[in-house]
Structure formats: structure tokens, C-alpha cells
Amino acid sequence: MLKHGVAMQRKSRKPHKMRFDKKWTPVPVTGCWVWTAGTTAAGYGYFDYEDEIHAHRASYTMHIGPIPAGMHVLHKCDVRQCVNPDHLFLGTQVDNMKDMAAKGRAQRHNSKKTHCPKGHPYSGDNLRIRPDGGRTCRTCMREVMNARRRADPEKARAREREWYWRKKGRPSP
After folding, report:
1. Which tens digit of pLDDT belongs to each residue from 23-64?
2. Distance between CA atoms of 32 and 169, rounded to whole angstroms?
3. Do 89 and 58 share a structural domain?
4. What is d(CA 118, CA 140) in angstroms, rounded to the nearest whole number?
5. For residue range 103-127, what is the model confidence (pLDDT) as tens digits?
6. Would residue 30 be called left, alpha or beta, if left means φ above 0 and alpha means ψ between -120 and 50 degrees?
7. Domain for residue 122, yes or no?
8. At 82, is the secondary structure helix, strand, or coil?
9. Contact 92/71 with Cβ under 8 angstroms?
10. Which of the 8 DSSP states describes residue 39?
11. Residue 119 belongs to a domain
12. CB of 75 within 8 A of CB of 87?
């Protein structure tokens, strides 16, 4: 630990589990263990444990085991302050977004937009729905593609040949 740029010895502390257990309260109806200590700006419990700052991640590590690199600890109960290990599970960021959408918590502010950032309408022939469900302005997409073609015509032709053969379901010759 650094204090004023000087390495300091950490004071001896109570065991992490003992400190952790004093900072949550059980909710009998839901089974959640609600974090009663400090929270982050996003509303998740805050707990300093082995380089973890989120209390639900610390709870998972203490009760279940280590969290593999790149994995997120997700809530079954959707309560950000919940640290009950029975309510936690591992998943990727994609799993987190799918879980959020399935539970109706996805913020759909982009779906309310009627025009792209450049002012073209998201409607009719100007609207392209991407495979991920997002929307793209065809006019803007066309402008980007034309700029790429002008910048490097040979690379653009190669890319278009690749797309053509991929669409046919065959590798390019």
C-alpha cells in the first residue's frame, strides 16, 4: 500500500470472511444478502479483497472459488447489492447482456431514436437491421463504403469479391 508515495505496511486485519460477514443483512423473503456497507457509483457493494472491489465478486471468490479471467459474476436475483453466493453465477459480457435483455432491464434508449447522428431518418429504405438487432443508417453506411473505395480501390475490390463468395457459401478462388 502506498501513502504519499511511500510503501507502507498494511495493518493486521481481521480475517476477510469475518469483515465481510459484518457488512450484509439477510432478506428472508427473497433470500438475498443485501450489502449494507459502502457502494460504488453504479450501486454495487464495495469490498477490498484480493484486488476485487465489488462485494459480489469477493463473495463469489470467498464462497465458491476463483473467477476465471474475462468472466463476470452475474446476479440471478438482479439485486446489485446482493452478495448471496447462491444468487451468483459466472458468465461472459455477452451472457450478461442477454440476461439483462431477457429480464427486461435493457435500456432501449437507442430504439427511441428516429434519426442517425448525421440526421438521416431510421425508416423505409434507409434503415438496415443488423443481425444483432441494432439499426444502421444505409446512407451513412454507403458514404463510408464510398470513402473506403476511393482511398484504396484494389482493397475494396478484394473485399467485395470475398463478400460475394461468402454469400454464395464458397471460399473465394
Report:
1. 999 999 999 999 999 888 888 888 877 776 789 998 998 899
2. 50
3. yes
4. 8
5. 777 666 777 788 989 999 988 899 9
6. alpha
7. yes
8. strand
9. yes
10. B
11. yes
12. yes
